[in-house]
Amino acid sequence: MITKLYQEAKQCLVAAGVDSIEFDLRVIFEECVGKDWWFSTKPPSEEQAKKINEMLRKRAHREPLQYILGSWDFGELSFAVGPGVFIPRPETEILVLAGLEALKNVQRPVVFDLCSGSGCVGIAMGKKRPDSTVYSIEKSKEAFKYLEENIRLHALKNVMPFNEDIFSFSQVLTADIIVANPPYIKTAEIAELQKEVLFEPRLALDGGEDGLVFYKEIIKSYSHRLEFGGCFAFEVGAQQAEDVSALLKKAGFKTRQIKDLNGIHRVVFAC
Ligand SMILES: C[S@@+](CC[C@H](N)C(=O)[O-])C[C@H]1O[C@@H](n2cnc3c(N)ncnc32)[C@H](O)[C@@H]1O
């Protein structure tokens, strides 16, 4: 019976120290058996049970649920994800909304999406603004494959992927807005992160000794690439908003901070 399998699965994840067990099991059972799995009176087929057990084995090793499923929702869109690419987080949707709001009165805007990863930020903006041109720049080869795949998946012609280091991006271009969710974890804090997060690429996490290396470098290298009246919109880590705002003010920008649903200042906006 499905309830027996569910109870066994629950024990397996409890023993592995997984948080969010009920949520993960619901998603795994839905994926393997179907949306109405919990109504089912008959046992899962051999194939379904095998698929559940395979997913559970990975989850018990603390592999992120998103990698196991191979896709994850971000706002209204779904993105291909897997080992080698940073998983889109719900708080990053605020960066997209802030970016779109800033472009409300700009015709045919040019957007730089620095440190694109899966492409969730640039693709979400490009989809909502078909008149925009988005340049999505990602250094990692593995992450870049997902970026390309996600652009194809959403059939976008206005999002241009570049497999480059943002600090040697060679195109001579200017932007109306530069959005970025760069690596911002302090190097010394990486080892203490949740086991699941350590499956994600270090290149996506490591923000240097003070966590601020990317913000400093982006402000230095990209301020002159903003159009007159152009803006930066940065996602920042908890307790980084003041430091990032200070860096931007020092460079001559006026700043605004936007909170996420947990009341944390999550986006710093600068014009
Ligand atoms: C925190 S992740 C954000 C990914 C995506 N924008 C998102 O919000 O889900 C940071 C990304 O920056 C990329 N990255 C790190 N250093 C880079 C560099 N010098 N140039 C371009 N991309 C870089 C990482 O590979 C990773 O994909």
Distance between the termini: 59 Å
The CATH topology of the largest domain: Rossmann fold
Biggest sheet statistics: 7 strands, mixed
Total beta strands:
9
- Counting helices, strands and paired strands, the structural category is alpha/beta
Features:
Rossmann fold; binds S-adenosylmethionine; two-stranded antiparallel sheet; 9 helices; 271 residues; 9 strands
Short structural description:
This protein is of the alpha/beta class and 271 residues long.
Please give the structural blueprint.
Blueprint: H1 2-16, H2 21-33, H3 46-60, H4 65-69, E1 71-74, E2 77-80, H5 93-102, E3 110-114, H6 120-128, E4 133-137, H7 141-153, E5 159-162, E6 175-180, H8 213-222, E7 226-235, H9 241-250, E8 255-259, E9 265-270
Parallel strand pairs: 3-4, 3-6, 4-5, 6-7
Antiparallel strand pairs: 1-2, 7-9, 8-9
Helix pairs in contact: 1-2, 1-3, 2-3, 5-6
S-adenosylmethionine (SAM) binds at residues 86, 88, 92, 115-118, 120-121, 137-140, 143, 165-167, 181-183, 201, 203-204.
Structural notes for this entry:
- The chain is of the alpha/beta class and 271 residues long.
- It has two domains: 2-61; 69-270, Vaccinia Virus protein VP39 (Rossmann fold), CATH 3.40.50.150.
- It has nine helices and nine strands.
- It has helices at residues 2-16, 21-33, 46-60, 65-69, 93-102, 120-128, 141-153, 213-222, 241-250, and strands spanning 71-74, 77-80, 110-114, 133-137, 159-162, 175-180, 226-235, 255-259, 265-270.
- It has a seven-stranded mixed β-sheet with strand order 5-4-3-6-7-9-8. Strands 1-2 form a two-stranded antiparallel ribbon.
- Helix 1 (2-16) packs across helix 2 and helix 1 packs parallel to helix 3.
- The longest helix is centred in the first third of the chain and has 15 residues, at 2-16.
- The protein is elongated, with a radius of gyration of 20 Å.
- The protein starts with a helix and ends with a strand.
- The mean pLDDT is 95.
- It binds S-adenosylmethionine.
